[in-house]
Automatic annotation (TrEMBL):
One of its GO terms (molecular function) is oxidoreductase activity. InterPro entries: Nitroreductase, Nitroreductase-like. The keyword Oxidoreductase applies. The lineage of its organism: Bacteria, Bacillati, Actinomycetota, Actinomycetes, Pseudonocardiales. It holds the Pfam family Nitroreductase. Residues 22-68, 80-161 form the Nitroreductase domain. This is Nitroreductase. It comes from the Bacteria. Belongs to the nitroreductase family. Keywords: Oxidoreductase.
Amino acid sequence: MLLDSAEKKNAATDVPVHPLLSARWSSRAFDPAHELGDDQLTALLEAARWAPSASNTQPWRFAVARRGTAEHGAVLGTLAGGNQVWARDASALVVVAARTTGTDGAAQPWAVYDAGQAVAHLSVQAQAEGLAVHQMGGFDRDGLTSVLPGDVTPLVVVAVGLRDEPTRLAESLAERETAARVRLPLDALLLTVQA
C-alpha cells in the first residue's frame, strides 16, 4: 500500500526532528492523473520566495512547466533519459535557476547556495501540502539554458506531484523507491576546526 511504503521511508534519526523533515523523501512514483492546483503551486513558490539570501539578493528564479503543456515537453526533453522515464508523470517540473550576477554586473557568489535554500523551503512546503518532490541534476544544461532567459543559470529541475504506488515503476526503480533511506552518521560529517 502507498501509506505503508511512505511510512517505511521515514528517516531513522538519532534524535527527533520535525515530522515534515523526517517523512520527506525523493519519490520517483508520481500519480499521472494528479493536477497541481494553483493555490498549492503558489504556496510552494511563496515558501521558496521567503528563503533567506545573502544581502537579501533573492537570486532564485523559477520556471514552472505543468504536465501536458509545451513547456513541460521542452523541460522534459532536457532531462537525462533515466529521469524522463518517471518525471513525465509528475504534475509539474519546476526549473530552479539563479542570477549569479547582480543588476550592477557584480558577481553574487552565494547565489547558488541561496537558491538551494529556496528549494529546501519549497520541499518542506510540498511535504506540508501532501506532495512529493524530487530534485534532479541530470539534465542537458545547454538545452535547458536555451529555453530560459539569458540572465539565469539553471541549477536543478524539481519534479512535483502526488506520490503514487512504486509498482507503477520499472522493477529497478521500484526497488530504489522502496529501499530504506540511508545517510552517513552525523559524526562522519563533523569537521574539526584547527585552532
